[in-house]
Amino acid sequence: MKIATWNVNSVRARLDSLSSWLRVTKPDVVLLQEIKCVDAAFPYGFFEDLGYSCSVFGQKTYNGVAVVSKVSLEDAVMGLPTFPEDPAARYLEVVVAGKVRVASLYLPNGGQEVGGESYQYKLVFLERLREHLATIARFDEIILIGGDYNIAPDDGDVYDEKIWHDRVCCTGKERDAFHSLGACGFVDLLDRSWREKNPDSLRKPFTWWDYRTRDSFTKNRGLRLDHFLGNQHAQDALQKIYVDAKVRIQPRPSDHAPVICELK
Known about the structure:
The protein is of the alpha+beta class. Helix content is about 25%, strand content about 25%. The protein has helices at about 15-25, 45-50, 115-135, 160-165, 170-180, 190-195, 230-235, and strands at about 1-5, 30-35, 55, 65-70, 75-80, 90-95, 100-105, 140-150, 185-190, 210, 220-225, 225-230, 240-245, 260-264.
């Protein structure tokens, strides 16, 4: 089974890219973030014509997450059960193929100011996410939490650690909160796989390159912000995980590239 996560930064603006990518890559399940539309405006017909059913948790203009799947899709959970007061559409959890629990996650960015209101909201969201993962960790099934976490977990996930030192997405509190998710039994699958295969490499594959910085992609000045967290069952089933960075050179690309996870 091939499962992908991709922050498309507006699903309707990215239909050309999605069309060619889906036809070539042929993922069974895709977790989408920042769809930036309400449920009724989601392009269901586009995905259904390609053989996908859709579960959508949308929001006008901002945020929004979705899961599209070629296998059965059921038991949708919209929003973190541990954070019912959150007004934003940031978390969608479903069971696919009757046996794999996946979630599409769009974690708050954290704003521009360390310690500001948006930053504090991000830390609260991370704590509520940790509480939820502690609950579902008891389930006897493969579990994957994929999405845009807006956190570069360590200095090997940024192109220049001096430039990004203690900036939002790279602060100690954010990184500590991210790593605390591991105490629930979940592992950063790409990080583990990359370290095993490239023990001497200082840099891991990036998933995000800033629109505002000229040549950020061609010069690989990026961050690794998009992750798959997997429980032990997911780790046991993992065959391959990688970043599909080539979509970033397409016309009108998202600033994020997909991460693809292949399971036995």
